[in-house]
What does this fold into?
Amino acid sequence: QVQLVESGGGSVQPGGSLRLSCAVTGYTRTNGCMGWFRQAPGKTREGVATINVDGTTLYADSVKGRFTLSKDNAKNTLSLQMNSLKSEDTAVYYCASGRFGACGFVVSFYNYWGQGTQVTVSS
It folds into this structure.
């Protein structure tokens, strides 16, 4: 059974940085895509950044140039470095593992989810 555990959330002032990590256990030999999503109160879950099995990354327009996604296959971790944070980045962030090699931001393509970690950007 695949399990994803996020860490690294917290509160930060606008312009600050946070690094989210996702530890993955229980992977089978065939790994799928992975990504980070977020959900703010009253809004639908949206994709933030994803990585395909070939290493190709995809970022939401709202985070391009500020967020960086990285995957360590040896340690089975997925990280999201978030810089120049804005108040609109405030949300619960979820790590997800997908069933295909390339998933984009299609929520239904992801079959394993972490419990989420809160990120709050406020002055």
Remarks:
- The radius of gyration is 13 Å.
- The mean pLDDT is 93.
- Residues 2 and 22 are 12 Å apart (CA to CA).
- The chain has no helices and eleven strands.
